[in-house]
Give the backbone structure.
Amino acid sequence: MKVAIISPVSCLEELSAQSTTQMALAHLVLSNNKYSEFYAKMRHRGDHIILDNGFHELRESMTGMQIFEAFKRIDGADVVIAPDHWPERKRTEHLTLEFLNSSAYNLMRTYYDDCEVMYVAHGEDIDDFKRDADFAMSYKFKLVGLSSDSASIIKRAEIVETMRIAGYTGDFHFLGTGYRPCEVMYEAEKLGVYSLDTGSFVKHILRGISLICDERQPPSLDIENEVIHTDRLEEAKHLVGILLKELDGLGCR
């Protein structure tokens, strides 16, 4: 399983660079030179790069052309997350098809033909996720993204099982790990999930929150302005290393 560590801009080298899988946020790629330069460097290093559409942070996905501009700035990506709109399945399908039919997508494919598009599945009930499976199969998506359990009334494990029973044979990406990062990562490994990203793991350590806490811990990690204490950064660096080494030992990366 591929694991992307989302960390503040000020400690990308100490934390995110420990993994060979990266999640780049398109809006920050366009607005923050240090951020974009880091992910371009990771791209040239040979890392697996996932380019996010910005919805979680902006509450609105970036346009296809904005995503393409971010794609160019880091010299391409292995996976681009199609525009979505949580929690609306039909609107997400519309945005996804609009993206696939856009000049931005055609340019992206010309620029880097092997880039995969991730469709983000949303739904209000199990039947919606069966429809997501049908949609993903109809348009031959090899990778489906699932929002964290805290953003859905249906657990991701149940969604994965439902979509597989419905006939979807592609891979899954867990978008975030919520407030139980370690538990979710091990669950994902057992489910055979292809990849996930986690900012919660870093947030907990930097803020001195237990990694096994049972309550949601707002606000989200502030990628650009999070206050970093030197001692906690060293702890985060150490624990990220341990986590990735343990996942390696399980054959997950």
Remarks:
- The first strand starts at residue 2 and ends at 5.
- The longest helix spans residues 230-249.
